[in-house]
């Protein structure tokens, strides 16, 4: 069988992957196969656009993620940005720059993961671009969502007196990455079987779950005053809200959720779990603020839906900053750091 050309590859990767019903629900009139896709608009809605890029050896390595995991996570990261506005993810454009060592088979596996995520969250994949690359694979995805006009939850809505909340524990992805890298490094140097990495940590790193339902609950009930998704770490996202809203966020160490699996794994490896909780990133839970009067209703509703909700601090007036009240009652600043692609360190 002769090698497929660009369009043959695109058909092999994308054809028949999504039902007509899913595409129709997203408003798709014409999908992949022409110069542009055609999508019906809705007058009472505003469109949300988000774009993320994953680069081989920067965002993923073969030692830590399968081809299918790469595809799933690349889309999940974009969907999370829509969730952080309280929106509904609808459409995706997928561009890949493919180096020689990423064969057609490997790319099909990547698209297996991507479509698994797309179908789980009802996202119609409607086009993109395919090019060659000299060395590393690059996956760049744009996700389009919509939200009720004038209702999107932004970062600049935090006000003094509000509570700070999270919709799940953090640090799990960082713990999973640590374990996967450690296992890969030690596998070639020892004949002893390494202790297993907690599966919840591995799952959090390889197949994160964007918090779409939580975002919609916060918007539909009018609870979310400000919102961010935890992609670069709790500290970084809290700082973004503080600066956008011109307020001070105070987090309480004793209220920060730490899963038992993470605490145990970190302890076994001589690591303070709080480091991963604050600075790990790629957990894709939501961090936000809400008026104090909504706290009880939020707790009850989230509990009924089986979605975690943790109240972790409050908003104060003052210059934009993030601080933490320690278990010992000391109020100390939290450094403004998280994952930085351009850091020299």
Automatic annotation (TrEMBL):
Asked whether the UniProt record includes Signal among its keywords, one would answer no
List the Pfam families hit by this protein, alphabetically.
Answer: AIRS, AIRS_C
Alphabetized InterPro entries for the sequence: PurM-like_C_dom, PurM-like_C_sf, PurM-like_N, PurM-like_N_sf, ThiL-like
Binding positions (Mg(2+) 2):
52, 81
Ranges for domain PurM-like N-terminal come to 33-147
Keyword Cell cycle tagged = no
SUPFAM superfamilies named in the record: PurM C-terminal domain-like, PurM N-terminal domain-like
Q: Which GO terms describe its molecular function?
A: ATP binding; magnesium ion binding; thiamine-phosphate kinase activity
Gene3D superfamilies cross-referenced by the UniProt entry: PurM-like C-terminal domain (3.90.650.10), PurM-like, N-terminal domain (3.30.1330.10)
Q: Which residues bind Mg(2+) 3?
A: 35, 81, 229
What pathway, per the record? Cofactor biosynthesis; thiamine diphosphate biosynthesis; thiamine diphosphate from thiamine phosphate: step 1/1
Reaction(s) the record says it catalyses:
thiamine phosphate + ATP = thiamine diphosphate + ADP
EC number(s) reported in the record: 2.7.4.16
Q: Know the name of this protein?
A: Thiamine-monophosphate kinase
What is the organism of origin for this protein?
Cohnella abietis
